[in-house]
Amino acid sequence: MATISNLGVGSGLELNTLLDQLTTAEQAPLTAIQNRATSYQAKLSAYGQVQSMLSAFQGAAKQLSDPNFFNSTTATSSAANVLGAVGSTSAVSGTYAVNVSSLAQSQSLVSAGQAKLTDAIGTGTIHIDFGTITGGTLDPATGKYTGATFAANPPPASGTSGFDIKIDSTNNSLQGIRDAINKANGGVTASIVNDGSGTPYRLVLTSNATGANSSMRISVAETDGGTKLSDLVSYSPGKNQDLTGNEVQNMQQTIVAQNAQLTVNNIAVQSTSNTVTDAIQGVTLSLTQGGTTTVTVQRDVKTIQTAVQSFVTAYNNLQKTAASVSNYDPASQSASPLTGDATLRLIQGQMRGILNTPQTGGSGAVTGLANIGVTFQVDGTMAFDATKLTRALTTDPNGVAGLFSNANGKDGYGNQINSLVTSLTGTKGTLTNATDGITQTLKSLSDQYSETQTRINATVAQYKAQFTNLDLIMSQMNNTSKYLTQQFNALNNSNSSK
After folding, report:
1. What is the pLDDT of residues 34-66, one digit of tens each?
2. CATH numbers and ranges of domains, the chain
3. pTM score of the predicted model
4. Rounded CA gap, 154 and 159, in Å?
């Protein structure tokens, strides 16, 4: 059977052009579906922009919903080189005279010098306790005590006081002992210094903690029958305070463990740390050197101003986004994705309803945003007067706090905006339902597009098959016509020759 490789060859008709035109006509429904999908995609994107702005506004509102936020304070030191100060929500405004006489410091001990880092020393178990040295006399030249007493710190609820370091033949050199102490991680840092003498290498032990109760007591239980390990590290600054019952100070104290000493308004205060948290209520002092300073504690107005400004900015961004996705341009008669959208109108209406409702959590003088310098403009955005907020915080700080916050988690603009956005964007929220509906519609359009495309493909294939048959029939007819014509011509020629 004859076949046609190209449409129109057999018939001489423009069948390819006709098939293209029919295909374009059949595909018109696809264009309509695609246009609908593009419109819904734009709407879904617009909802996403609105949701992003809602989340930002919720974050700004949530910060203001905490009553403690409005109790934030700043603490400043008139001599920053003496100490730094940081206030908290529990701090009390006021001025405090502080005199730092001494800083807290860690105890440091140094051993006698050794000729080499790797020479073998005795073996045994080193035990280090922490506690307080009291009484007696300290010789500053030798760094040793006479007649002092060592009181060990109470052991923890579970465990024993202090910690052990085992020294055997694998680590009984100066550097081995150093590494073993550091590996024990018991609160002591070991290092080795070179003093440049004939026996230059000296082991240095420093308590990791500051304060008078961070002093060390070091005892040694020898295992090799010698005393060289004890000669190196034993340190018991108190008669009969050593675990063996001996007062031994083979190490030299180079830095005394001591508390920080200071006065606040002439009241004596001491601290085991240079970070002092209880000398001024709600204020943390970071001591750096001795000296006098004045610490001033006051309400952190700037932080509150910044938070309110963020609240206003976030609301304005939400309004501008809502306007941009719902505007209608009469000149070009073009609409935005959410022009006339009921969901967006509902969100804006609920938001305005909250912000225009007076609050009862504050005082009688502060019940609305206008009382703290936040006003609505003609275009629906907010304007903010920081001076008016500062005045309100000075005259009625509790009223300002009550305008946005409440411990019940319900009253105040901060709580109410936070709750509203949560309800709008939650699992069954208005905005969530709207976006879920669009997503489902887009899925349906995608399925419809696929089904329509399949139907069109089948129709076009049928057209092509019919055109191919037409082309074949026309070709056959043309061939038959040519054959008959030839036969008639031959017959006529034969008759005319007779």
Report:
1. 888 888 888 889 999 999 999 999 999 999 999
2. 1-72+300-498 (1.20.1330), 73-104+260-299 (no CATH), 108-255 (no CATH)
3. 0.69
4. 11
